[in-house]
Amino acid sequence: MRTDRRGAVRLRASLFASLSPWPAPQVRPFTDSLTEILRNGARALLTQAVETEVADFLERYADLKTEAGHQRVVRHGHLPEREIMTGIGPVAVRQPRVRDREAVGGELGQSRA
């Protein structure tokens, strides 16, 4: 089996990385009060940004109606809370769900025929 120089260098680099005597860096969350204030601010800012984006999205499709005359694109609760890693540590966020009541195949604009 023959490998070029680049393949050998990549193989060597991956072997050295796996044999490193130092543990992989781990992010430890801070627990001081200033960091908690920053995390709460980051959480509020992310929530506001996502809610604004969802409101703009719903407004863009507000003119779409179902055959019964109801709003076609609607809010549909939230996904489970998850953590996003930021520079100040993990921040828990909830992502709103949006639903197209007449979508087929999961794409907006594809309606049942």
Descriptive notes:
- The chain has 113 residues and is of the alpha+beta class.
- It has one domain (27-113).
- The chain has two helices and four strands.
- The chain has helices spanning 5-18, 33-60, and strands at residues 73-78, 82-86, 89-93, 96-100.
- The protein has a two-stranded antiparallel sheet. It has a two-stranded antiparallel ribbon with strand order 2-3.
- The mean pLDDT is 77.
- Number of helical segments? 2
Pick out the low-confidence regions: none
**Main β-sheet, in a few words?**
2 strands, antiparallel
Strand residues, percent: 15-25%
- Mean pLDDT across the residues is 77
Overall number of structural domains = 1
Radius of gyration: 24 Å
Which secondary-structure class do the elements indicate? alpha+beta
Residue share in helix:
25-40%
Give the total of beta strands.
Answer: 4
Element pattern in H and E: HHEEEE
Strand order of the largest sheet: 1-4
Distance, first to last CA: 57 Å
Bulk shape: elongated
What is the fold's blueprint, element by element?
Layout: H1 5-18, H2 33-60, E1 73-78, E2 82-86, E3 89-93, E4 96-100
Antiparallel strand pairs: 1-4, 2-3
Question: Which short descriptors sum up this protein?
Answer:
113 residues; alpha+beta; two-stranded antiparallel ribbon; elongated
